[in-house]
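ok so heres the complex, two chains, lmk if somethin looks off
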Amino acid sequence: MIKVLFFGPVAERAGASEVQVAFAAGMRLLDVREQLQAMHPAAFEIVCFAAVNGEHVLDMSLPLADHSEVVFMSKFSGG
Amino acid sequence: MKDPVRLQQEDFSQDEEVLALRASSKRMGGIATFIGCARDFSEGREVMQISFDAYGSMAVAEMNKLREEAIAKFGLLDARIVHRVGVVGAGEQIVFIAAGAEHRAPALQACHWLIDELKQRVPIWKKEITPQGDAWVTQHP
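and the predicted structre for the whole thing:
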């Protein structure tokens, strides 16, 4: 399974702070995004960044390992 | 001694943080600090509280990277970054940054750089709680 976390405004729009996505061999970050975007379109309207296992990821074709932790995030507003 | 980089619900003490910074080196000739506070208004609306959500593990990791980068980039002797999460009342402290160097210029420059970079790179989100309802802040002023 892939653990996907949402925070702040993305979590509010998705109505969840964590969802699980079934892992499949060859799965890329883009595949997870497309799957979840179809389920939570309003949340993904504001998604700007992604992280895998706590690291910023720019390349959405990044292959994922099983049990990865993925986060889709909106612009930050701390400080 | 408290960790120099922290995410915490409770308020922080500037005096304690500066004392901890000064304890790291007697060569420190300049210390610059920044405190971000919760304004009681935003875009014409009264703001009663601000609620912060964070991707905690990544936020702390990014804040640690920022501290290490600032120490290297500006030749600092030490730096500290503390950010609160949870609900913060209007007028209360949100974030603390301190940069200590041999001279004032790198301390001031590093302090400014650190708060700007924190806003861009650290996964923390704020929601303003107003009498008219709650609203997530997604723009950088």
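quick notes: The CA atoms of residues 11 and 73 of chain B lie 29 Å apart. thats all i got rn
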